[in-house]
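Recall from the previous lesson that a structure prediction takes nothing but the amino acid sequence as input. Here we apply that procedure to KIB1-4 beta-propeller domain-containing protein from Eragrostis curvula. The sequence below is the only information supplied.
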Amino acid sequence: MAEAPSTASLLPLLVFHHQPQPGHDDEMLMFSVPKQSLHERLMEHDHLAGGNNMSWTTPQGWMLIITKSSSLSSAAFLWNPLTGDKLPLPNISKEHDIPQQCKCLLSHKDPTHPACVVVLFHRTEPDMWCCRVAAGASYGGWRRYTYDIGDYELPESYRDPPTPRVIFGVAARQGKIYFTDTKETMGVIDFTSDDDPDFSYFDVAMVDYPEGMNSGINSLVESQEDLFLVYVCFVGFDATNIGAIRAYKMEFSAEQQQACWRRVHDIGDFVFLLENCNMGASRAAAPSGLKANRIYFMNNFIKDDASLCIFDLETGARDIAQVHQHQDMHIIRKPFWIVPPS
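The prediction returns the following tokens.
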């Protein structure tokens, strides 16, 4: 009998959180990019799909697991999917109840860094939750914030009441969270203080769409302490027709008072793994047996299917892989990546 592959050799994994039949327990179908193979009930399945558990991946590889409880608080911890190691977090009280429709990241690559903060952003509301991993009494465990970055610019007939803007593209770099703000500015969130997070902004012009393309999806990615912007551009406003995929690297001035996006065709010996929440992970290609300088993302902007797009930045070649043959899979949430912790 052939020896089962190690978890490390299977990562990164593309995970389809689904419900096989109504009333049945959730399942996780996992596609290994290096092995081009499908797996079920891999790793500690109950952490990912247990009836009382909620889970979020992070670009840093660690996963946030919350065990829901009928008591006044729920247990939470960070989990390393490669080693099984756990880092306990303060319990989450009912007043800070966190919904599943959030995206999660760490402020630092190493969660044991004394200043590392777990941050979750609600996808449709201007709410965020924060917790310092090495939480001291002064920080007070989990906190919920409703931030204000302005309102959406809508036609006058739709402005009453105003619609608050929410944070979309996010990436952690050098202990701070960067986010796309407007066409002229980027935002930065600093968690250094034990008080509320500090929001600041700097000027940088957003890139233009290529000719003939009027819409698209952008994602922020941190790689080797650099900040990248990946644009998946649509022909006109047709999200089923991808016209271009471009990557840009942020260039800071010496004083970091000015910045600009510079288009790149080389991201080194790395791959970018994009999710549908305007962020992504960067991982070294060689240790996983992957070809470098590629961008992976699900081509499911309109409907959920099994189409994984692989884009070669150097050649411009684009491949589509059908990662499973399950028809009419009832997806609980959009596919997400499990990557080795950085």
